[in-house]
Amino acid sequence: MTAPVMEQADTNNQAAAGHLAAAGRWLFARGCEFRLGVVDVDALPPADRPEVAFAGRSNVGKSSLLNAITGQKALARTSNTPGRTQELNFFMLAPGLQAQGLEGAAWLVDLPGYGYARESKSRIAAWNRLLEQYLRGRPNLRRVFVLIDSRHGLKPNDLAMMDDFDRSAVSYQVVLTKSDKISQSALAAVTEQTLTALGKRVAAHPEILATSSEKALGIDDVRGAIAGLVELDALGYNRET
Ligand SMILES: Nc1nc2c(ncn2[C@@H]2O[C@H](COP(=O)(O)OP(=O)(O)OP(=O)(O)O)[C@@H](O)[C@H]2O)c(=O)[nH]1
Ligand SMILES: [Mg+2]
Q: Which of 140, 142, 183, 227 could form a disulfide with 23 if both were Cys (CB 3.0 to 4.6 A apart)?
């Protein structure tokens, strides 16, 4: 008896994922614009619409993923120099749409990277303080995507940040990056290890996504995950179109 029920659940999940991927493509086809870079939490834009943030170690591929999901090669600055993105950069998704009289579907936030070599203690402290203040000031933050290099898996500073998210009940989802750099079997192994490590974490999303910005893999999955966090109906999205 259980097998057909499981199959039905799988079919329903696949259908839901398909709808979200379509919604994600619709949403991200409506463009994305850089609005402001913030170095001080006093300068944060109003917390009045859904927000998702991208966090992760320096050089993990945050800015590249933002460029890939928005289809704009130079939207967020990318570089080979770790620590390049020093501010919180706010991007307005679908600026031409409106919901509840407000412009845009959501804020996408490119957070400064952490954990690059030779980082001073004072810089680590400043990063921690900025993140803490940011999280405290953003009740509209729907999810943080925690980017993890698929070649390296979870590192101590990733775990420390997730501890903070668990403690402050900030929902987060792991996204493996640079999947083009490893074999399918290595990707399966790191996925399994990561899922096991996330199992007991209260604020972790139970699914993880594997992506390559370079080869455009998993990009619709990230778009779909974001589409599931915004007010699609209020923004005028019609499933049938
Ligand atoms: N092969 C491959 N390289 C990637 C991918 N994503 C990013 N990179 C490269 O990794 C480097 C760092 O990418 P960024 O997107 O700048 O990383 P970041 O996380 O924004 O870095 P910081 O802003 O310094 O924290 C760049 O050289 C990218 O071209 C990917 O999917 N595949
Ligand atoms: Mg960056």
A: 227
The pTM of this model reads: 0.93
Sequence ranges of the domains in the chain: 3-227
Question: How far, in Å, from the CA of 70 to the mean position of ligand 2?
Answer: 15
- Atom number in ligand 1 closest to CA 147: 19
pLDDT tens digits for range 188-223? 999 999 999 999 999 999 999 999 999 999 999 999
Q: CATH assignment of 3-227?
A: 3.40.50.300
Nearest protein Cα to ligand 1, atom 23 = 85
> Tens of pLDDT along 70-86?
999 889 887 766 655 57
How far apart CA 59 and CA 116 sit, in angstroms, is: 8
Task: Give 36-45 contacts, CB < 8 A, sequence gap 24+.
Answer: 36/89, 36/90, 37/87, 37/88, 37/89, 37/90, 38/87, 38/88, 38/89, 38/90, 39/86, 39/87, 39/88, 41/130, 41/133, 41/134, 41/137, 44/88, 44/134, 44/137, 44/138, 45/90, 45/107
